[in-house]
Amino acid sequence: MVVVPATQSRRGERPPAGAPQRREPALKGFSGLALALFVILLVISVIMAIILDSLGVPDGWIGAEVILLNLAGLYILFALRVANQWEKAIVLRLGRFRGLKGPGPFWIVPVVDTIPAMVDHRVMVTPFTAERTLTKDSVPVNVDAVLFWVVWDAEKAVLEVEDYQTAIAWAAQTALREIIGQMDLASILVGRTVMDAELQRIIDERTTPWGITVQSVEIRDIVIPEALEDAMSRQAQAERERQARVILGESEKQIAASFAEAAQAYRDNPTALHLRAMNMLFEGLKEKGALVIVPSSAVETMNLGGLMGMASMTGALQTLIAGGQPSTSPQEG
């Protein structure tokens, strides 16, 4: 006979990542209150035995008193239990469901009543993963998610399923694999909200008969193969470069259209063209040490010869004013 560990399935698979381990019932041991009362009754019985013995009471009566107090202490020790504010105790009487007890102190019948489990009514968090699961377009992905759930019916959670904490972790992982197999990679990467809602619906349908409701499911991370990630990065870079080139071409078209419109205005008004040329030359000569090269065709077309001479004379005058005669080479006449 092969014994299967409680933390493994019969198929030999590991439990889902983050699946909570099965906890032993917290109330199987003695509660602190019951233990304190037992000690108090034990001390009282010893003190009363000493007092009765000093008063000359027969030993038979003293023994009976001690036995009664000890029995009362033992009953309190085994019958008094305490549940926390967020817990419910499942009480079975001779194997049959008796009821829910707690929160706070409550009494059970020793030997007859048993408490097989404690149910936590707080919101529970269960992380789960789907490793190397194929998408609809045959891409292996690793997906991490978190499940938020709460037990609303403690009786169903204990009586309808063996270990509801592990069961809900397995149900969540199975649902995640099912959803991944129905979607392609692009839909998974951009549709996390849709996946969350669909996962919550599927898991909640499976856990409702167990007295458990799913409050939300959140996808934490989606990991794709490194080679595919590099390819997608190069694709995104190529797309951004294409968009940049398109924008640059559109800008060139707009600039050409503006120049064409300006050319039409200058063609009908030569004076305006001449003034524009003078302004451009003036802007170039404003900076100290600036060198302006003007094509000869532009000089002839826009009548800039006189203007260039005036610019040279202006530079010579500025040199004289700055402090000194301009130097002349031997070749100059």
Domain tally: 4
Which spans have pLDDT < 50 for at least 5 consecutive residues? 1-13, 20-28, 324-333
Structural class: alpha+beta
Q: Which sheet architecture does the biggest sheet show?
A: 3 strands, antiparallel
Q: Tell how many strands the DSSP assignment holds.
A: 8
CATH homologous superfamily classification of the largest domain:
Band 7 domain
Using the CA coordinates, give the radius of gyration. 46 Å
What fraction of the residues are assigned to beta strands by DSSP? Answer: 15-25%
Using the coordinates above, name the CATH class of the largest domain: Alpha Beta
Along the chain, the helix and strand elements come as HHEEEEEEEHHHHEHHHH
N-end to C-end Cα span: 122 Å
Give a written overview of the molecule.
The protein has 333 residues and is α+β, with helices and mostly antiparallel strands. Helix content is 53%, strand content 19%. It folds into four domains: 26-118, no CATH class; 124-224, Band 7 domain (Tetrahydropterin Synthase, Chain A), CATH 3.30.479; 227-268; 270-318, no CATH class. A hairpin with a 5-residue loop joins strand 6 (124-134) and strand 7 (140-151). Helix 4 (164-181) crosses helix 6 (192-207). The chain is elongated and about 145 Å long. The chain starts with 31 loop residues before the first helix and ends in a 10-residue tail after the last helix. The model is unreliable at 1-13, 20-28 and 324-333 (pLDDT under 50).
